Amino acid sequence: MPVVSADKQHVFLSRADDIAALAVSVLIPLPLDGCYDYLVPDDMALAPGDLVRVPLGPRTVVGVVWERDEEAEPQAPVKLKAVVERLDLPSLPEVTRRFVEWVSNYNMTPLGMVLRMALGPPEMLRPGKPRKAYQLGGSQPERMTPARERVLGVLKGGPPRSATDLMEAAGVSRAVVVGLVQMGALDQILLPSLGLAVGNSEKPDADKQGPDLSGDQRRASESLRASVDANIFSTTVLEGVTGSGKTEVYFEAIAASLRSDERAQVVVLMPEIALTEQFLNRFQARFDAVPTGWHSGLGTRERREAWQSIISGEARVVVGARSALFLPYPNLKLIEVDEEHDSAYKQEDRVIYHARDMAVVRALLGNSPTILVSATPSLETMVNVWEGRYAHVTLPVRHGGAVVPEIQAIDMRSNPPARGSWLSPVLSEALENTLSAGEQSLLFLNRRGYAPAAICRACGHRMQREDCSAPLVVHAYGQRLKCHYCSYSVSMPEACPKCGAEESIIAYGPGVERLAEEVAKLFPEARIAVMSSDTIMSPAEGRRFIERIAAHKIDIIIGTQLVTKGHHFPMLTLVGIIDADLGLSGGDLRAAERTYQQLWQVAGRAGRAERPGRVYLQSYMPEHPVMQALAAGDGPGFYRNEAASRQVQGMPPYG
Ligand code: ADP
After folding, report:
1. What's the pLDDT band for 467 if we cut at 50, 70, 90?
2. Is 244 in the pocket of ligand 1 (CB under 6 A)?
3. In angstroms, rounded to a whole number, what is the distance separating the alpha carbons of residues 608 and 398?
4. Contacts 24+ apart (CB under 8 A), 196-199
5. Residue 246 CA: distances (Å) to CA of 41, 125, 225, 291
6. What's residue 128's pLDDT?
7. Number of neighbours of residue 445 by Cβ within 10 angstroms
8. What does DSSP assign to residue 476?
9. Counting beta carbons within 10 angstroms of the beta carbon of residue 417, is it exposed (0 to 12), middle (13 to 18) or buried (19 or more)?
10. pLDDT tens readout for residues 39-86
11. Cβ-contact 450, 511 below 8 angstroms
12. Mean pLDDT of the chain
C-alpha cells in the first residue's frame, strides 16, 4: 500500500505491482536516457503521449507520459513524487514517440535529447495569450464608405479576423477598423491561441489548377501521385536539372496528398538557406494559402503557434528546415526533402543526425511515402536507386525550352589573370559582352570578406587570434580582421605582431569584396552588388536583394554560396566560377561529390529563361574528373566513377 511521507512530498510504494498500477513513466526532454516514474493523482487519468508537468529536483518540468518499459522490472520499494498537472494540449502522437526512440537508438543519443527536438523550445508548450479578433457586430455603420464596405465584406460568412489581417485583406488603415468597432459594426472577441493564428486559417486549396505540365512533367507527377495514392511507405527520388519544373511537379504530389485525406499533413524540408520568401510566395500562389513555416527566423510566438497547430493537426503543410521533421504531426502523409544532397541536412552538434535519412525512417514508421528532390542527388541516394530500394523519376529538360547552359572550363595555367587580379582574360571578356548585351552576370566565389588571409611580407606570419590561433580573415575592404568562428574583430594591425615590421601586412588571396573591387575597376559603369552573409543579415534584406536583381537593378552579382539556391532570374546569362578548385582541397572523402553538386547548382543559375546561358569554370586542374563531368554535362558518368572509386576504397556508402 502507498505510504505518504511525513512532509507529503513523496509516496512510498513497497511493491512492484503498485508501481505499475499507480504510477506512470514520464520522459523528460533533458539529456537523460530513461523515464522516471511519477505517481498519478487520484483525480487524473493519463495515457502515453500526454504532456504533463512533474517535479524534478527543486523545480517542475514538462515531460511526456511514455509507455512503461515491460522488460525493466520496477524496483520496489521506491519513493515517488506525483504528477503536478496534465497540460491542456493534444498528446504526442504514437508515431512521434516511436520515431524519438528510433532516432535515439540509431544515433546513440539520450532519449530525452531527441524528445526535446519533438517538443521544441520549452516556450512551445505554454498556452499562448488569447488573441483579439473581430467579427460582425449588431449595428450598421452610420455612413457606409467603400473602405468600411470592404471590411464588412471580408468578414461576411468568414471566420473572425485580427485587426492586422483585416487591414491587409480589405486594404484599409487601422483607423477604419477602430471606427467600425466604436460604432458597433464590429465586435471584438478573444480567441484561444491554440491552433492556427487568426488570419492564417486559410487552408491550402488542393483543387486549385496548377500550370499545364509538359509531357515529362506529367509523367513525373503521375508517378509521384501514384506513390501518394498508394498511401504506404515508399521512397522516390525526383531528379531533374535546375529549371526543369521539379517544384511544380512536387506541388502536384502535395495537392494529391491533401486531396486524398482531409486531415493529411505534409512536410517539405529545405536547407535553411533555401527557405526563402520567394519560395513561400510561390507556394501561396499555387495553393492560395501560406504554409506553416518552421525555421530559425521565427519569433517565439510564431513558433509556438506553428508547433501547436502542428500537434493539433490544423497545420496541413509545413515548410521547414531539418528540425521540422521531428515535430509532432498526428497525421503526416507525405515527406518531401528538397535539395536532398545538401550538407545542411546533416546536424553535427548535440544530436547528430542526417535529416534526409531520418526522413526515410519517419516515412517508414508512419507508413507513408517520401520524395527526395535534387538536381544532383547525393551518391548515397543514387546507390539506393541503383540497388532498387528507391524509385527514380527524372525530368531531363528545362521547362519552356530554356537550354541547359554551356559549361566551359578555363585553364588558368594558359589563361592567367594579371598579377593581383583574379579574373582570367576569357572571363573578363565574357563579362564585358554580357554587360553590353544588357544582361546580368553572376560571379561565384565561396569566400566571405576581402581576403581569406593576412600575411606579413617580412616574416611570413599569418594573422591569427593569439588566444585560440583561429585564422583571421580580412574584411571591410582591407580595414579589419575577423574571426569566422565567433564575433571577434579587430582593425588591421599596423605592424606585424610577430616580427614587428611596420606596414608589412598584406591581404592574401581573393574574397568576394576584393573581387568586387577588381570588377568595379574594370567596369566602372556597371552596377555591382556583393551577396554574402556579411551583406545579407536578415531574410528581409535577402528579399530586397533578390527583388533588386529580379528588377535588373544590378548588372553583376558577386556572391558566396548564398547565391546558389533556388532563385530564378531571367536576365542572368553568365555565370563565372572564380575558383572551381576551391572545394577539392582538404581531403574530405565527399569533396569531389560536393564540388560537383555545388558548381552544378551555381551553373544552373544561368540562362533560366529564353536567353541561353554560359558558364565558365576557372580551374588550375581542368583535367580533374569534376571539371570534366561538368563541362561534358555528364552527371551520370561522374556518379558512376565516384561510386566505383568509393567502392574500391571501401568508403561510404559502401564502407
Ligand atoms: P526546378 O524546381 O526544377 O528548378 P521550377 O519548378 O522552379 O524548376 O521551374 C522553373 C521555372 O519554370 C519556374 O518559374 C516555374 O514556375 C516554371 N515552370 C515549370 N514548369 C512549368 C509549367 N508546366 N508551366 C509553367 N511554368 C512552369
Report:
1. confident
2. yes
3. 8
4. 196/292, 196/305, 196/309, 196/314, 196/315, 197/131, 197/162, 197/305, 197/309, 198/131, 198/133, 198/159, 198/160, 198/161, 198/162, 198/165, 199/161, 199/162, 199/164, 199/165, 199/166, 199/168, 199/169
5. 54, 36, 14, 18
6. 60
7. 25
8. G
9. middle
10. 999 899 999 999 999 999 899 999 999 998 877 766 667 788 999 999
11. yes
12. 89
Q: Distance from CA of residue 302 to its chain's centroid?
A: 16
**C-alpha count within 13 angstroms, C-beta hemisphere, residue 571:** 19
> Residue holding cell 525530368?
395
Question: Quick check: 121 pLDDT over 90?
Answer: no
Alpha carbon of 281 to ligand 1 centroid (Å): 14
Q: Burial of 525 by CB count in 10 Å (0-12 exposed, 13-18 middle, 19+ buried)?
A: exposed
pTM for the predicted model, two decimal places = 0.82
Cis preceding linkage at 653, omega within 30: yes
Q: Exposed, middle or buried by CB within 10 Å (0-12, 13-18, 19+), for 565?
A: buried
Cell of 65: 507520459
Nearest in space to 625 (alpha carbons), one of 581, 561, 579: 581
Average pLDDT over residues 204-231: 96
Q: Which long-range contacts (CB under 8 A, 24 or more apart) does 327-331 make?
A: 327/118, 327/120, 327/267, 327/294, 328/92, 328/93, 328/96, 328/118, 328/119, 329/93, 329/95, 329/96, 329/265, 329/267, 330/90, 330/93, 330/265, 331/261, 331/263, 331/264, 331/265
Q: With a 6 A CB cut-off, is 246 part of the ligand 1 pocket?
A: yes
Asked whether the beta carbons of 236 and 392 are under 8 A apart, the reply is yes
Q: What is the pLDDT of residue 196?
A: 41
Determine if ligand 1 sits within 6 Å of the CB of residue 248.
yes
Q: Evaluate whether 253 touches 224 at the Cβ level (below 8 Å).
A: yes
Q: Which residue's CA is the nearest one to ligand 1's atom 19?
A: 245
Return the H-helix or E-strand segment holding 436.
helix 425-436
**3-state SS assignment for residue 360:** helix
Distance 413 CA to ligand 1 centre (A): 39
Residues 455-466: tens digit of each pLDDT? 999 999 999 998
Round to the nearest angstrom and report the end-to-end CA distance of the chain: 56
CA distance linking residue 50 with residue 632, whole number of Å = 57
What the block records as the C-alpha cell of 599 is 558548381
Distance CA 575, CA 444 (A): 7
Is the confidence at residue 6, as pLDDT, over 70? no
Tell me the DSSP string of 208-224: S--PPPPHHHHHHHHHH
Task: List the grid coordinates of 372.
Answer: 527526395
pLDDT tens digits for 139-176? 888 889 999 999 999 888 778 888 888 898 889 999 99
Instruction: Give the C-alpha separation, 331 to 263, whole Å.
Output: 7
**Mean pLDDT computed over 392-417:** 90
pLDDT value at position 22? 86
DSSP assigned state of 348:
-
Which set of grid coordinates corresponds to residue 519?
570588377
Q: Is the CB of 214 under 6 A from ligand 1?
A: yes
The share of the chain scoring above pLDDT 90, in percent, equals 63
User: Is there an atom of ligand 1 within 6 Å of 416 CB?
Assistant: no
- Residues 34 and 110: their CA atoms lie apart, in Å, by 8
Indicate if ligand 1 lies below 6 Å from the C-beta of 278: no
Which strands, in side-by-side order, build the sheet including 489-491?
472-475, 480-483, 489-491
**Alpha carbon of 580 to ligand 1 centroid (Å):** 28
